[in-house]
Amino acid sequence: AEHTRDEVELPPPAVDNRLTVHTLWPEIDRISTEQIQAAFEGVGGQIGWQLFAEEGDMRMYRREVEVDGMVMDPLKAMHKVRGVSAREMCHYFFNPRYRYEWETTLENMNIVEAISSDAIVFHQTFKRIWPASQRDALFWSHVRSAPQHTYAVTNHSTTNERYPANSGACIRLIVTVCLACRSEWPPGQQPSRDNITTSIAYCSTVNPGGWAPAGVLRAVYKREYPKFLKRFTSYVLEQCRDKPLVM
Ligand code: 16C
Q1: Residue 3 has pLDDT above 80, yes or no
Q2: Which of 5, 26, 103, 177 has the CB geometry, 3.0–4.6 Å to 155, for a possible disulfide?
Q3: Contact 172, 166 (CB under 8 A)
Q4: Per residue in 102-128, pLDDT tens?
Q5: SS3 of 138, please?
Q6: SS3 230
Q7: Mutate which of 121, 127, 204 to test ligand 1's pocket (most atoms within 8 Å of Cβ)?
């Protein structure tokens, strides 16, 4: 068979057995299920969600949440992209090979544990935001398929003895992120680059882990989230151009 792309590296259509025997599996399964379900729930009826960025089909909402003066605003973004599948979107978000190409907040990324084809533990350091201390994060990342032509990546903070928090120059931040994607195409047709539309729901909650000025944080948030989602979606479109659609 002819392979135009490393198909073995694409998000698998079913959970990898190596993951289901790992000690993190019960947590990964529970949190991923919750996150994917919540991702497609609207923000319409819910109190407190405010629209803060809108461009084309992209809409970003946040809820102002402070705990002991620390900003932990949850973010929810909706977008629509034509010409790429949910599986392709999640492939580029999950696979570390592409991360430096679209992730502009990243300073350094390390693979702590490659659990399976669909789960990896990462350590990342981020660019410093003046005047706060630099941040790092340690999180598992899991990609899975779900009903209705859906694929999703969930990232959630964890711990590891080899990577203790707050031991060096960095303050450890705590993150929960879900990128959930659902593909649609006209009934009675085969999906193709010309007729497929993928709806994206991106949810993120970042606890800065220690003091950072609220005003600076909200300004960074407002600038960086739209920048990320626009950059990431156009990166995937560019990568997929002239390649056969992978469902
Ligand atoms: O989901 C995204 N990326 C994934 C792969 O990297 C993964 C990452 C999650 C970590 C998100 C936390 C990022 C904190 C960055 C702090 C430094 C920003 C410096 C920028 C200045 C040039 O799931 C895409 C993530 C897009 C992140 C947008 C920025 C969010 C800022 C939230 C406030 C962070 C508090 C930092 C305290 C100083």
Answers
A1: no
A2: 177
A3: yes
A4: 999 999 999 999 999 999 999 999 999
A5: strand
A6: helix
A7: 204
Q: What would the mean pLDDT of 206-213 be, rounded to a whole number?
A: 92
Residue 116 bridge partners (DSSP): 119
Q: Please give the residue that has the higher pLDDT: either 147 or 68.
A: 147
CA dihedral 90, 93, 96, 99 (to 10 degrees): 150
Residue 107: φ, ψ to 5°: -100, -50
- β 171-172/135-146 pair status: parallel
Contact 57, 191 (CB under 8 A): no
The packing angle between helices 214-240 and 86-94, to 10°, is: 120
User: Going by CA atoms, what residue is nearest to atom 20 of ligand 1?
Assistant: 105
Residue 135 near ligand 1, beta carbon < 6 Å: yes
Q: Is the pLDDT of residue 58 over 60?
A: yes
**For residue 19, what are its two tokens?**
């993951």
Distance 104 CA to ligand 1 centre (A): 9
